[in-house]
């Protein structure tokens, strides 16, 4: 089969390829136990693109990762923008649709209560390959996605991504991963593809590198093991600290891994060491945000400092950090406080300005308090936060929500007294069965405050 390159790609450097492929049979994905070639994939993309209504933007709600990948490219190929809500919750979808009047919604599942203008994708059957393999190119300045933040620190915000910026951010991720794994590897991901971390590691990697992605989104440890067994070595598991903890605690055996990748929440050194010892593979933690995409990495088991990707520069500010990166048109301000090392090529996190506490002249950070809470034997999950309202003497109290089935409140507070200044002991401390984490393991502040409010009213949230 001959490979034909889009003529625009050769004539205009302002266009970039939709797909990396040196041959039509390059494996893009693994679906139902079988490899999906680049030629089959592009056939599915064109099939779905032909069925899309004329609109400026489409909410991509596809659950199956391969269906999402196809829909993502079909929307881009039609010159439209993928709208990526912070969650699949009806309210989150409604808010995104209200911000984009006239947009449509594309999904792969039947919905009992579907949003307006919902279109279910036709089944992706086996495609008949043509004699020529045409690789499409996309206007580099096309806004291909608008991702919404999780709202873990406030209201979700919209972030526009051009095809040029995605190419640039993926180049950094590929360089980081290839240094550990080589050119070709297969990915199984537990994170949803709508999340920016999921987009980067399970959508853009198979599109722009010689990488295959498993179509599923395994959740339970046994499902993760089964998915990994369906792809050949070398295997990479893209996941979160919450899923890593579940895998380590489950005692389940996984097929041999070449590496693990983690993001979305702080990863303790203890968990990183446990995961590496349990599964015999290095654990790479990546650092970024919906606003910036990934721009640094480290091996958390042995490194405290983060290494910046090529072309990235950080500029510490009194209230955060400015990030300059190849994928950004302008510097982006993050709330994270950092200290630079090794000529500015490495950095350490010092918390966030909003996380820094000062009570009676003493200082602490919520991140460090949470780390000490999680270090207590018997605490499976937990978080410390500062309440919005001040008490009668003007102090905003510290609260904690904790998962510790074998402990009670007094046992946890006694352990904390040995680890932190008593001024920062949480009042109230609420024991629950599970924290209200979203699909990527983050904790929306509104959900935490609602949980604490329910507790203060004397009602059990469980």
Describe the structure.
This protein folds into two domains: 2-303, Rossmann fold; 360-456, GMP Synthetase, Chain A, domain 3 (2-Layer Sandwich). The relative contact order is 0.09. Residues 1-12 have low confidence and may be disordered. An eleven-stranded mixed beta sheet has the order 4-3-14-13-15-16-17-18-19-24-23, sandwiched between helices. Strands 8-7-5-6-11-12 form a six-stranded mixed beta sheet, with helices on both faces. A three-stranded antiparallel beta sheet has the order 20-21-22, with no helix packed on it. Strand 27 and strand 28 form a beta hairpin. The radius of gyration is 23 Å and the shape is globular. It is of the alpha/beta class and 462 residues long.
């Amino acid at each position: 089969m001959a490979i034909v390159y889009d003529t625009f790609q050769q004539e205009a450097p302002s266009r970039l390829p939709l797909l990396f492929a040196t041959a039509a049979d390059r494996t893009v994905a693994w679906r139902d136990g079988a490899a999906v070639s680049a030629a089959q994939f592009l056939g599915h993309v064109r099939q779905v693109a032909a069925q899309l209504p004329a609109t400026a933007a489409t909410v991509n709600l596809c659950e199956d990762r391969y269906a999402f990948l196809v829909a993502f490219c079909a929307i881009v190929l039609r010159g439209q923008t993928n709208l990526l809500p912070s969650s699949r919750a009806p309210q989150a979808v409604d808010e995104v649709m209200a911000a984009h009047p006239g947009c449509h919604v594309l999904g792969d599942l039947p919905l009992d209560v579907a949003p307006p203008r919902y279109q279910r994708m036709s089944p992706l059957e086996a495609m008949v390959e043509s004699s020529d393999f045409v690789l499409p190119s996309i206007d580099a300045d096309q806004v291909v996605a608008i991702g919404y933040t999780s709202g873990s620190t406030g209201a979700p915000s919209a972030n526009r991504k051009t095809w040029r910026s995605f190419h640039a951010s993926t180049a950094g991720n590929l360089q980081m991963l290839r240094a550990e794994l080589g050119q070709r590897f297969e990915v199984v991901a537990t994170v949803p593809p709508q999340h920016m971390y999921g987009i980067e590691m399970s959508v853009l990697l198979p599109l722009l590198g010689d990488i295959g992605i498993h179509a599923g989104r395994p959740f339970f440890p046994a499902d993760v093991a089964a998915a990994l067994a369906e792809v050949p070595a070398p295997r990479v598991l893209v996941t979160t600290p919450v899923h890593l903890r579940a895998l380590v605690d489950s005692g389940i055996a996984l097929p041999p891994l070449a590496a693990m990748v983690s993001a979305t929440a702080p990863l303790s050194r203890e968990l990183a060491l446990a995961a590496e010892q349990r599964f015999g593979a290095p654990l790479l933690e990546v650092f970024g945000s919906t606003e910036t995409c990934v721009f640094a990495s480290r091996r958390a088991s042995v490194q405290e400092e983060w290494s910046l990707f090529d072309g990235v520069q950080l500029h510490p500010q009194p209230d955060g950090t400015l990030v300059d990166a190849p994928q950004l048109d302008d510097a982006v301000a993050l709330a994270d406080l950092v200290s630079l090392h090794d000529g500015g090529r490495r950095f350490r996190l010092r918390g966030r300005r909003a996380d820094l506490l000062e009570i009676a002249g003493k200082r602490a950070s919520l991140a460090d308090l949470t780390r000490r809470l999680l270090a207590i034997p018997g605490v499976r999950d937990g978080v410390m936060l500062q309440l919005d309202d001040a008490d009668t003497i003007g102090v905003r109290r510290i609260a904690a929500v904790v998962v510790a089935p074998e402990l009670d409140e007094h046992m946890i507070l006694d352990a904390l007294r040995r680890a932190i200044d008593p001024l920062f002991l949480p009042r109230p401390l609420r024991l629950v069965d599970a924290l209200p984490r979203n699909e990527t393991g983050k904790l929306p502040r509104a959900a935490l405050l609602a949980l604490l409010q329910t507790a203060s009213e004397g009602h059990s949230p469980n």
